[in-house]
């Protein structure tokens, strides 16, 4: 028996074990869809793994603790079999790459925003200086402007102030003379140096100024163009406008900035079981995603409407999708294949193009990315479990929004992890972590956080990053890829109930 036959037999046995559909019918379905043998085996393998784990989507076996690998021999659950996917789930890194390319698929719009409205936007063009900075020689300190060697004569009651304009003494300073000067004031021509007030000695009786320290030519003078010359590039296109960028732009002469408009996002919350207020009761649970998604998406540079709750209503979902004028629609729940999971059927009815239909990542496996029309908008379908939805945000929404907003996508980096981190047997795992400073000369590292089950938010609430754990897990003391979350904790976390 060759390797392909052995794999196919293993898949057939797994399907038979959990009451899967007839394999011959699956092969007929695959042939009708034009799937190759490898694609069909990949699809069947993913379905077999999900069924053999005793869950659909991101449901965990009832006896599995958060963060632990799945039981290899769970009790089968009587759950409906999902329909055959048109293609196997994408690996996590490939799914992120597809989302990033989709975001960069079209030309970026450019608007000119006044400085007081540009904060948080992305520069559509490089920011070039409109003037020299500083635009004239200025005093860096309160003190005395002097010309030539000392001691220097001065005129009592005469001083140069910032913004005072031209005066005969400001135009030129003869050798052997001094004049009081304020920080930011224009230095007269032929000024040798500025002597700080605390370093100067004034002999009022003789009308002479001397210094307690040697004078170096040019000291405490900011020469014209010290920071930049007119036309110099200050910051490149794609830079996020921060308060400091606003200050630099104002100093360089700008009243408005060329910016990329923020992508507009609609959030659709799906599920009849969700409450908008009060305590859970009678099988109803609080909607955790509606309050979370808006601020999270805004932190990614989007302009977000208030969440719209649709329930499990296919027609309401269809109407919401066709009437939206957003650049991106984010849905929560309904991405699997249960009796009230309407996202796939509605997208199919609308003729949407599925760019990503399932990702080999836990939690968040049944996430999806679609394009509703050739020129947009896009739709990111998040699973309904809260941490699984966060996984979808990091995997698909973040790189897509980075492209739409004109900002660079976040690059994963590597960090040392303290503690073993279990992995999924086949898929990538995203695990909340918190950064810790090294002690006694040790390296900085990350610590994995508990409460990382698909339905839990307690771990991610304490996290400042997410570890990308490969299949099989990692051992303590090794390096893992880290994605930063779009905020930093207000208070440093300490070892405790979260770790």
Cα-based radius of gyration, to the nearest Å: 32 Å
Average pLDDT value? 82
The count of DSSP E runs of length 2 or more, i.e. the number of strands, is: 29
**What can be said about the biggest beta sheet?**
7 strands, mixed
Helix content: 10-25%
The amount of beta strand, in percent, is: 15-25%
Note the overall shape.
elongated
How far apart lie the N and C ends?
47 Å
**Structural class, from secondary structure content?**
alpha/beta
Low-confidence stretches: 1-86, 489-499
Question: Would you write up a description of this structure?
Answer:
It is a single chain. The chain is of the alpha/beta class and 499 residues long. Helices cover 24% and strands 23% of the residues. It is built from 11 helices and 29 strands. The strands form 7 sheets. Strands 1, 22, 25, 26, 27, 28 and 29 form a 7-stranded mixed beta sheet that branches. Strands 15, 18, 19, 20, 21, 23 and 24 form a 7-stranded mixed beta sheet that branches. The longest helix has 20 residues, at 386-405. The protein is elongated, with a radius of gyration of 32 Å. The relative contact order is 0.12. The model is unreliable at 1-86 and 489-499 (pLDDT under 50).
Q: What is the topology?
A:
Elements: H1 3-17, H2 23-33, H3 37-52, E1 90-91, H4 92-103, E2 111-114, E3 122-123, E4 127-128, E5 138-139, E6 143-146, E7 152-160, H5 168-171, E8 177-181, E9 193-196, E10 200-203, E11 208-211, E12 221-222, E13 233-235, H6 243-251, E14 256-260, E15 264-269, E16 274-275, E17 285-286, H7 289-299, E18 303-304, E19 308-309, H8 314-323, E20 328-332, H9 343-349, E21 353-357, E22 359-362, E23 368-371, E24 378-382, H10 386-405, E25 413-416, E26 428-436, E27 445-448, H11 458-461, E28 465-469, E29 479-484
Parallel strand pairs: 1-22, 7-8, 15-18, 15-19, 15-20, 16-17, 20-24, 22-26
Antiparallel strand pairs: 2-14, 3-14, 4-13, 5-12, 6-8, 6-9, 7-11, 10-11, 21-23, 23-24, 25-29, 26-27, 26-28, 28-29
């Amino acid at each position: 028996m060759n390797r392909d036959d052995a794999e196919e037999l293993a898949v057939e046995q797994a399907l038979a074990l959990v009451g899967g559909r007839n394999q011959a019918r699956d092969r007929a379905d695959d042939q009708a869809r034009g799937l190759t043998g490898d694609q069909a085996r990949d699809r069947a393998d993913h379905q077999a793994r999900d069924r053999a784990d005793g869950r659909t989507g991101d449901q965990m076996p009832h006896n599995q603790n958060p963060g632990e690998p799945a039981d290899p021999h769970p009790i089968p659950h009587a759950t409906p079999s999902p329909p055959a996917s048109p293609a196997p789930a994408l690996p996590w890194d490939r799914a992120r790459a597809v989302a990033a390319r989709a975001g960069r698929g079209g030309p970026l719009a450019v608007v000119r925003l006044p400085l007081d409205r540009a904060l948080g936007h992305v520069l559509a063009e490089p920011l070039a200086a409109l003037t020299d900075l500083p635009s004239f020689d200025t005093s860096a300190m309160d003190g005395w402007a002097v010309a030539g060697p000392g001691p220097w004569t001065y005129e009592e009651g005469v001083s140069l102030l910032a913004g005072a304009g031209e005066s005969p003494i400001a135009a030129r300073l003869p050798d052997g003379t001094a004049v009081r000067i304020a920080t930011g004031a224009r230095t007269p021509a032929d000024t040798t140096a500025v002597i700080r007030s605390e370093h100067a000695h004034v002999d009022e009786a003789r009308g002479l100024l001397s210094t307690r320290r040697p004078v170096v030519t040019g000291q405490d003078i900011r020469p014209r163009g010290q920071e930049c010359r007119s036309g110099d590039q200050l910051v490149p296109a794609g830079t996020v406008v921060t308060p400091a960028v606003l200050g630099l732009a104002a100093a360089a002469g700008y009243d408005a900035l060329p910016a990329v408009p923020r992508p507009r996002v609609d959030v659709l919350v799906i599920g009849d079981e969700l409450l908008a207020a009060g305590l859970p009761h009678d099988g109803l649970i609080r909607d955790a995603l509606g309050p979370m998604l808006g601020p999270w998406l805004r932190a990614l540079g989007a302009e977000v409407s208030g969440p719209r709750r649709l329930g499990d209503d296919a027609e309401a979902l269809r109407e919401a999708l066709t009437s939206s004028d957003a650049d991106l629609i984010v849905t929560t729940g309904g991405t699997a294949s249960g009796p009230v999971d309407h996202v796939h059927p509605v997208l199919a009815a609308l003729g949407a193009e599925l760019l990503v239909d399932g990702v080999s990542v836990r939690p968040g496996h049944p996430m999806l990315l679609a394009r509703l029309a050739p020129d947009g908008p896009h739709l990111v379908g998040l699973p309904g479990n809260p941490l699984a939805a966060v996984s979808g945000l990091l995997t698909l929404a973040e790189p897509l929004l980075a492209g739409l907003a004109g900002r660079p996508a976040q690059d994963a980096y590597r960090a040392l992890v303290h503690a073993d981190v279990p992995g999924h047997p086949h898929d990538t795992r995203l695990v909340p972590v918190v950064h810790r400073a090294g002690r006694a000369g040790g390296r900085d590292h990350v610590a994995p956080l508990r409460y990382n089950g698909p339905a839990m938010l307690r771990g991610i609430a304490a996290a400042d990053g997410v570890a990308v754990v490969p299949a099989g897990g990692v051992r303590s003391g090794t390096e893992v890829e880290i994605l930063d979350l779009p905020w930093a904790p207000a208070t440093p976390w300490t070892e405790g109930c979260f770790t």
